[in-house]
Known about the structure:
By secondary structure, the protein is mainly α. About 50% of the residues lie in helices and about 10% in strands. The protein has a 3-stranded antiparallel sheet with strand order 1-3-2. Strand 2 and strand 3 (about 95-100) form a beta hairpin.
Amino acid sequence: MSTETTWDDVPDPPPGREAQVTLREQLACPVTAVLHRLGDRWSAVVVRLLAERPHGFNELDRRIEGISRRMLTRTLRGLEEDGLVSRTPGTAATGRVEYALTARGRSLRDQLARLGLWAAGRPEPTP
């Protein structure tokens, strides 16, 4: 038996009264948190590239046109703090740092692909 809440489970407000959402409820909503993280300009792009394979910082910098190194650093740190990206330092001699999607990041990649199909107005492929 599923315990997930869907929009159909949310009761309608009484007639003549609008539903209210408090700031606390809004900030506690997991969907709000995801949209905040992915609503920036670069996070979805970084997730898409890391879905292909792990990348080094410089490689990501070269592949994403228009992003500053500072913004790439901030984006990667945010994704890492959210548990979507892992950061693996290389040897001291190379100084290379490799970024990869975590299991949670890979599951997000699948959801982003579905969202992309929805946004483009195409049906989702059946498994």
